[in-house]
Amino acid sequence: MDIKNIIKIVFLLTLLIFNLFSVAQNIKFINADEFVRIGKADSELNFHRIEDCTLREMPKNIQTLAKHSSGIAVIFETNSSCIAAKWQLADTAYYANLTPVAQSGLDLYCLRNGEWQFVNVAKPKRGLCQEVAIISNMDTTTKQFMLYLPLFNSVTNLEIGFDSSAWAGKPKLLGIDVSKNIVVYGSSIVQGASASRPGMTYTSIVQRNLHLNIINLGLSGSVKMELALAKYITSIPAICYILDCVPNTSPQQITKKTYPFIKYLSMSKPKIPILIIESIFRENGYFDKEVKDFVKRQNDALFKACKQLWTEGYRNIFYLSSDNLIGKDHESTIDGTHLTDLGFVRISDKILPYLKRILKEYSTNRD
Amino acid sequence: MDIKNIIKIVFLLTLLIFNLFSVAQNIKFINADEFVRIGKADSELNFHRIEDCTLREMPKNIQTLAKHSSGIAVIFETNSSCIAAKWQLADTAYYANLTPVAQSGLDLYCLRNGEWQFVNVAKPKRGLCQEVAIISNMDTTTKQFMLYLPLFNSVTNLEIGFDSSAWAGKPKLLGIDVSKNIVVYGSSIVQGASASRPGMTYTSIVQRNLHLNIINLGLSGSVKMELALAKYITSIPAICYILDCVPNTSPQQITKKTYPFIKYLSMSKPKIPILIIESIFRENGYFDKEVKDFVKRQNDALFKACKQLWTEGYRNIFYLSSDNLIGKDHESTIDGTHLTDLGFVRISDKILPYLKRILKEYSTNRD
User: DSSP labels for A46-100?
Assistant: First the structure.
């Protein structure tokens, strides 16, 4: 190594140490417990999607998945010129179809003129223990921020960093109406595979657009319509249920389970609309004849169950066909099944107007 | 462990061994050298973007990056009912803003009624040595396929698998016109950060749309407009050059380097149009005042250099402003800078009509 390289390394190390020192000097970290958390149906101070006592009675795989923090966000207000975060992850699993940012990172939005606008992400490094500066050099007017948590990992601790001289706390007027919950029960697509970052799942796009509190019960590979889940869902005070639960279930299982599952929801909560969404058509199904046939039979079985329920007079069941849900160019997925941001924006554009109509129709029921 | 679980495990292991055995029995692998490779300016039988003798004279960081296979694809025709791939990667680097599929995976398209349609991806596992079934159960009519290689990794060997009884070879009529090259020189965005899969970079979207051979010279973090690059670019027989090289260069460096770089290209090849693309506005620049100012000064410096060249009579220089290149909803990036599939589709929608107009105007020059 020549002298030039040694000088360069010494200079970079000095810079690094200076930076670490100055960050430590100027940033104060506040535990996320001090702020508002949304995307949860319970008030436990963790980032699990189902409360612990209920979870203990659920199937084993759900016990793990429900601890992934998909759809959970922390909302706070501050006049800080910078925002940083420290967070602790539970695992370092490998997903070929996810970015580490989506799997284990954080995603910051700011409320500007009443609309949520993307600010920046906190990119995770390899490993479990994370500390990242998210945004700097902002003006110091008071702003409301929403920080989305990882989609496919659990967060065991979260602290948010601000200028040491800044104020940070709960917003007076929240940019999400936490009194109005929508529960979305679904597969890995609902959990967020394969959004590029935590805020780009369709549940979060819908949430920002409607300013409502969406509880994401996307359970990757494990959406089996167990009655335990139906019971849990009806225990959540909600203004709408969305079921996007076809992908992980065989046509035979859909035939067997959909009818009792939806009937239970519909009977228990006749004043709450239930929106059923068909499975998107798998892109490889345009080439693989078996996949094509399988998805068709899945959606046919779903429709048949709903038709039966309509015939029996269950009126609060709404249905969104998969036709054109994600466009016609075959480019909305990463792997034929899981939606990218392109797919999530397109499916949100289809869900939003229908959902708004349903919510408007049912708002008089609730009031 | 109870007897039920032991039986289950033995059954699954038997199934796995049987499957491995049956795949080995029914699939034949053919080295990619037997097919057509596109996205390369040279005819070397590797997956590097710059030929080895030229590369040896380039800056060190370019020597590594140019071996990443971004934009390179293999085209073949087959009547096989399935397609598989074995490929060997060079490294296991960590990128927080890339999926493993984009970084190290493969992406398969099929030519259907004259249009390239997505089929499926080959998802890489952890590690360097990969073997994946991409698609099965297809009808056995002869079809043309294009298999994109990894965006941020080097491939040292690639074999494509077919039914042992099927035919596979070079297509008679290629779905990409390899006699017409467009060279795109740019940063990590051009190289493909952060497309979800190899086929979703804007260079590949444009390539499929125009059926032309695009040489992707996206060099992540290393687009410094060195004269060595300008010389290399002019050595490639091309119908257009696209320069998207603002992001990695300071306003001062842009002022210093853009003028001689573009002048060299324009003087050397006055009949080849040069399309200059401004840097997209960084999303965090809406909050971080320093970023906002920096990007503005970058684009201002770029425009000033082009204006000077226009004034001096260089007429083959075209310019695409960053206004509305990626939409107005602030959702097109993973991290404020790198485009997701949503951003890449949007920027392609802006580039394509302008590029078509330029190519049409210059087609008479060439003929």
Answer: S--SS-HHHHTTS-HHHHHHTTS-TT-EEEEEE--S-EEEEEEES-----TTS-H
